Amino acid sequence: MNLITEEVKNFLGNSSMIRRMFEAGIELKKQYGAENVYDFSLGNPDLPPPPEVKTAMEEIAGKSGDMFAFGYMPNAGSVDCREALAKLLKKEQDLNCAKEDIIVTCGAAGGINAFFRAVLERGDEVICPSPYFVEYGFYAGNYGGTLKPVPTNEDFSLNIGNIEAAITPATRAIILNSPNNPTGKIYSKAELEAVAAVLKAARSKYGRMIYIIADEPYRFLNFDGVEIPSIAKIYDGTVVIGSFSKSLSLPGERVGYIAVSPQLENKAELLGALTLTNRILGFVNAPVVGQKLIESCWDCQVDLNIYRRRRDAMAKVLTDAGIEFIMPGGAFYFFPKSPTADERIFIDALLKERVLAVPGRGFGAPGYFRLAFCVSEKNITDSAESFKRAMAAI
């Protein structure tokens, strides 16, 4: 008797290596103690939220006697929250979004799913530079779409020729995640303008909109102060999707947003569809407490310098161990090259030294592995000898 679909059964059989390593870490910590396990598997921010969040929470709690304090919100989000997000986008990207151009979502993941539900037909293709966030394929598949990974250059910059060659009459969107998970790469304005030119030509050729999904939850994690261009100002078919999981250290609160480019013609139709899909997927509205926090804390963030010091510490550990990597410009991940062709062999060697990393094949890049450095600086530096021993072992 089949209890679940064959598709989901296959998903379970190939379930996320990130979660598998995270669960292995729990067992190792029980055995050796948390301080003796170096868990770089999961991108779960460990910093407390900024103090302004605590102040806002206290103010929200003080109003809890109001019977409507935690009632249903409009499906697109509260007016005050969307006005705050419009201010954020103006400050962050000089993007002149009105509150009507913004939908508040259940995190960035909820935003991507609401968007795909609104625009994907069965058989549509979603291009994605590889390496890429592992869940993208599931999100597209939820609505009959297919993720189409496209290799990047050796330094993880966009290969425009590969993107152009991947476009077909079925292409509906391309996901650009910058700063990138898992590589930390920040795409330049020249790269983005080249992508926009290719998409505009394809739109004219095939007679259909091809969207850019600017997936930007790591935008504030820009360690070297380089320009992170506003994709929505470069290409009219852009939707910006963000969240406050990293910037405010609120991953469990599940509050994010979709902002439609003000330049998009007939944008009201798309915004109406997004409001509908945000509701009918079962989200109804983003968490009320999260929306109220954004109203007060949209201009706050955790200390970037803490993550910058951790990045530099991780770079030293890898360099001293003789592991090849490209320095990440943003996000909180390293994506080094494995010293073995099959990175799983090296992952096992690391595991024997109580270091948890994630195989690159889960991100579409065999021969690499991912390390999340959203852990204490001491945990990073203490792992140095374990990395050296793993290198020696293989």
Task: Tell me what the structure shows.
- It contains 15 helices and 12 strands.
- Helix 4 packs across helix 11 (288-297) and helix 12 runs parallel beside helix 15.
- It is an alpha/beta fold and 394 residues long.
- The strands form 3 sheets. Strands 2-8-7-6-5-3-4 form a 7-stranded mixed sheet, sandwiched between helices. It has a 3-stranded antiparallel sheet with strand order 9-12-11. It has a two-stranded parallel ribbon with strand order 1-10.
- Helices cover 42% and strands 13% of the residues.
- The chain starts with 5 loop residues before the first helix and ends with a helix.
- It has helices spanning 6-13, 17-32, 51-62, 79-93, 107-119, 136-141, 160-166, 189-206, 231-234, 267-280, 288-297, 304-321, 343-352, 377-382, 384-393, and strands at residues 38-39, 102-105, 125-130, 146-151, 171-177, 211-215, 238-243, 256-260, 333-334, 355-356, 358-359, 369-372.
- The chain is globular, with a radius of gyration of 21 Å.
- Tell me, briefly, the overall form: globular
Give a count of the beta strands, DSSP E runs of length 2 or more: 12
- Straight-line distance between termini: 45 Å
Q: What structural category arises from helix and sheet content?
A: alpha/beta
Radius of gyration: 21 Å
Give the count of helical stretches: 15
Give the low-confidence spans.
Answer: none
Give the amount of beta strand, in percent.
Answer: 5-15%
Report the mean per-residue pLDDT as an integer: 93
Q: Give me the side-by-side strand order of the main sheet.
A: 2-8-7-6-5-3-4
Order of helices and strands: HHEHHEHEHEHEHEHEEHHHEHEEEHH
Described by strand count, sense and barrel closure, the largest sheet is:
7 strands, mixed
Helicity, as a percent range:
40-55%
